[in-house]
Amino acid sequence: MKPKALVLQARGSNRDLDVMDALTLAGADAVGIPLNDLRNRKTLLSDFQLLVVPGGFSYADALGAGKLLALDLASYFVDEISAFVHAGKPVIGICNGFQALVKSGILPGDSSAGQSTLTFNAQGHFECRWVHLRPVSRNCIWTKGLEEIITCPIAHGEGNFQSLGSLAPEQIAISYVHMDGSSANGEYPANPNGSMLDIAGICNPQGNVLGLMPHPENHIHTWQHPRHTRGETGGSGLKLFENGVKYAGDL
User: Fold this and answer.
1) 232 is catalytic
2) Which of 132, 215, 219, 225 is the catalytic position?
3) Which of 12-21, 52-61, 70-79, 215-224 has the least mean pLDDT?
4) pLDDT digit string (tens) for 163-177?
5) CATH for 4-250?
6) Is 215 a catalytic residue?
7) Distance between CA 153 and CA 113 in Å, rounded?
8) Quick check: is 219 catalytic?
9) Taking 90 as the threshold, does the pLDDT of residue 247 lie above it?
């Protein structure tokens, strides 16, 4: 049977259909579930094998990007999500979803709770561009075994990851790099937001929860490549979702 993937829908989130498309192509049975359905227990998180907190502008990013969604997660679903994570089930938060996972304390994990944040881009403005990513963690189930550079868009004003906590090296799951795969070394625009250590995504110590600012769900078809009309291909983000779905299916 296909693993069941829950894509959380909050007011303002707008990449839920994109990530459902990616999960479906990766072999999952993906459904979008409004947050209020979980709150009212019309749907149970425990019935699913994979959880996605998608990108967008949840609650119009009032009080800061992802902050109100993070309050919802921490206030209403902390026990359910904790049980989901501790059971080893895969979780991914993308862009606004990443911000919500960090600000609710789900990421980076127990050792750095409250000591990490995603703050304003170093350039001081909203960034909307294509970037290049290197999967680097062999501990993260989402990136394990991925060798190809991923090319996908970003769209955020608060994607600058900073941490004062003890973030383990294996928790750095995805890094910003130049087009040729060389390290961004903090250089703009290869590192589009000023994140420390060129971090584009991190995982929890267990490796089953991934958060990242870029949008791999927006490069899963050949025609989505920014230079596909010139015959260029490669860099698809689909394999990231295939990893998560396969892992969920094997549980």
Assistant:
1) no
2) 215
3) 52-61
4) 988 789 999 999 999
5) 3.40.50.880
6) yes
7) 28
8) no
9) yes
